[in-house]
Amino acid sequence: MTTDGPTCVACGRSQKEIPLLSLSFRNATYWICPQHLPVLIHNPQLLVGKLPGAEGMAPAEHED
To answer: Who's near 15: CB < 8 A, 6+ residues apart?
Structure first.
């Protein structure tokens, strides 16, 4: 998908399609849509190959 401007690191949708949240990581800015924010928090391994360094991220611990 080629677009001008930010796209979600998980799904590639642009800010013209869905709201995007910016995140800073390793001195770079990435974008993620609200639908995929839980992936970043609970299953960051699903972002391997899409977000540099995701392979080293641990999922959030739950205190249910």
So the answer is: 5, 6, 7, 31
